[in-house]
Amino acid sequence: MVKVLQRCVSRPSLESGLTRRWAIQGLTAVGLMSLGTLHGARDAQAAVLPRRRLVIRATDYRFELPATAPSGYTEITLHNRGHEAHHVMFMRLHPGKTLAEFTAAAKSGDAGALFALADSVGGPGSVDPGQTSRAVVRLAAGRYAVICMVPNAHDMPHYQMGMLAPLVVTPSADEGAAPETEATVDLVDFSFDGLPQKIRPGRHVWKVINTGAELHEMVLNRLAPGHSYDEVKAILTAPPKPGSATPVPSAPPPFTSVAGTAPMNSGAVNWVVFDLQPADYFAICFVPDPKTGAPHFDLGMIRPFRVA
Fold this sequence. Notes:
Distance between the termini: 41 Å
Oligomer: single chain
CATH architecture: Sandwich
Structural class: mainly beta
Number of strands: 18
Radius of gyration: 18 Å
CATH class: Mainly Beta
């Protein structure tokens, strides 16, 4: 499994998968698609969240967060105060591995080496500037490296630019309980099983489980008025032209990343907490497949839903 993950997050394939989001520009409007409704979904307005809180502020390119936190179910909030998209990956170091080793691996530019030293338990997913991302994570006691793996416009991952911070999680006698949820989304190879097609506006809590064999994320995006899911999907999944470089956009893409989970290892569980306004949305995974190098959305991990 370690070798698979090393290949999965090798720098070339990771960057080609993540940076294709920047290829979206100059699109023309088409009609919005019609989605079905999830029946029987319970309103999550009164869902009880863990009493533990961990607030992280992200800038370009630093994290502000406490040096320590107690173990247990923790609501982690990421405030993106930078000018680029950011997420928070909680990388729990393997026994006997040190932060110095992790930092050295990060500086080497080999993203796969990071997963030989630590596992990602997830965290708040990638959101655009000015947005806030929330996720509940059960933090086990141990040492962590908190990183952002999103690349900049020149394909350099943010952790190489300073977005790497230590966190020590100390044992706690009372770790609390997981929040109640209205939906469970399985991240499989390669789909979002159980993703609701239609939800009400307001606060929601989804349990997100990586039941696949590969690293997966779930980024929730709100479509801009006048743009559709079919339109964005067609651009994202269009094969790149041979020898063409990833374009740097002259205008923002026609969607905003507003919530989700950061890339996490197989077996990891997060609870995504979000409050969405009426609009059309889609979920996507940018992580690349280790066998083909294709981003997971090319293999099926892109799905629409509507808030109405």
